[in-house]
Automatic annotation (TrEMBL):
Localization in the cell: Cytoplasm
NCBIfam families found in the cross-reference section: asnS, PRK03932.1, PRK05159.1
Gene (name only): asnS
Family to which this protein belongs: Belongs to the class-II aminoacyl-tRNA synthetase family.
EC number(s) given by UniProt: 6.1.1.22
A Pfam family reported for this protein in Swiss-Prot or TrEMBL: tRNA-synt_2
Organism: Peribacillus psychrosaccharolyticus
A Gene Ontology biological process term: asparaginyl-tRNA aminoacylation
Residues in Aminoacyl-transfer RNA synthetases class-II family profile domain copies: 130-430
Protein name (Swiss-Prot/TrEMBL): Asparagine--tRNA ligase
Assembly description: Homodimer.
Keywords from the named record: Aminoacyl-tRNA synthetase, ATP-binding, Cytoplasm, Ligase, Nucleotide-binding, Protein biosynthesis
Coiled-coil annotated spans: none
Amino acid sequence: MKITIKEVSKYLNQEVVIGAWLANKRSSGKIAFLQLRDGSGFMQGVVVKEEVGEELFARAKSLTQETSMYVTGIVKSDDRSPFGYELQVTNVEVIHESVDYPITPKAHGPEFLLDNRHLWLRSKRQHAVMKIRNEIIRATYEFFNQEGFVKVDPPILTGSAPEGTTELFATKYFDEDAFLSQSGQLYMEATAMALGKVFSFGPTFRAEKSKTRRHLIEFWMIEPEMAFYQHEDSLQVQEQYVSFIVQSVLKNCQLELNTLGRDLTKLEQIQAPFPRITYDEALKFLHDKGFDDIKWGDDLGAPHETAIAESYDKPVFITHYPTSLKPFYMQPDPEREEVVLCADLIAPEGYGEIIGGSERIHDLALMEQRIAEHGLSPEAYNWYLELRKYGSVPHSGFGLGLERTVAWISGVDHVRETIPFPRLLNRLYP
């Protein structure tokens, strides 16, 4: 019976056939240990010379890294294995012999690995990160579906920018200028006025010349938008959502987290509610910590966010940023107009901002004023202004960056490992 490695627990003490690649091997005089992978998982196959005979044993010993094959064997429990099972091999049928596979078990530099990303994905570590990414995506759909949200797909090609035009990729749309989307938010606001609570999940593009471990040129965003939700309502959704995906990964990706050496106790603490501090309180904290160079009106950089996050064992909201630091669409605090009703959610352990969100301006006159102040074209944003003209309501939303969230939950150092084919500054291959 042909099965996958993921399914072997159902076939204890039965003979099965698994289509697999050879990840690695070692052998003694009488036993060969084959490290098998099939995409669903990793498993050890044991070939005993006395049981299989000279010919099959010699064939097993000669297998090269990443050779593809059908492996027949009997599933046995194995308490020594993190996986819990091994395969007593009875036959090996080679499909394709791999010769001179470039990524060997020795250490390689990051540029070499990125040049060979199409192959690097096969490694146990990268497999674990991709499985955790997949679980976060699966849990995202589960959370928003059970909370009554509708999935909506905003356009990727746009005629205007939600946050200005300095970091946009421009292209031609026949005779018009167009841009690759840096956020679907404005369109999500329109769909929220039609469907109540919506979320999108799609690619976004930032032409930002940054080389930090937190930045990608192309990344994926989850962007919910909610009609009749004010700032506080949105914060509650955010902390419930983040708690949900972390606990889902803990429940369903134990093997992958262990493969990565992740400290599970840090993730077990991620339960709503999350602590909150204002921008003003953040500045006072930073001044007390010796960050004397930052003053009111300055944006918080990575060192500042890390210093704040180190004081908490959960993600922390930093709220009420100065209006001057944030995009034109954010609702001012009615009690203090120089700050807006917004929040950035900072992940623990130095992973930085994973969510940015706010209550949106719902007053037409104020939105027109802000568009003028930011030098934006009223004509280009006419449809957006009409959302405030025909039955405007208070509404809020946020965006979660998938790759930073994957990096934090899986514990990897750089976001380049959290997406199958990273687009980085000066890297468009493979």
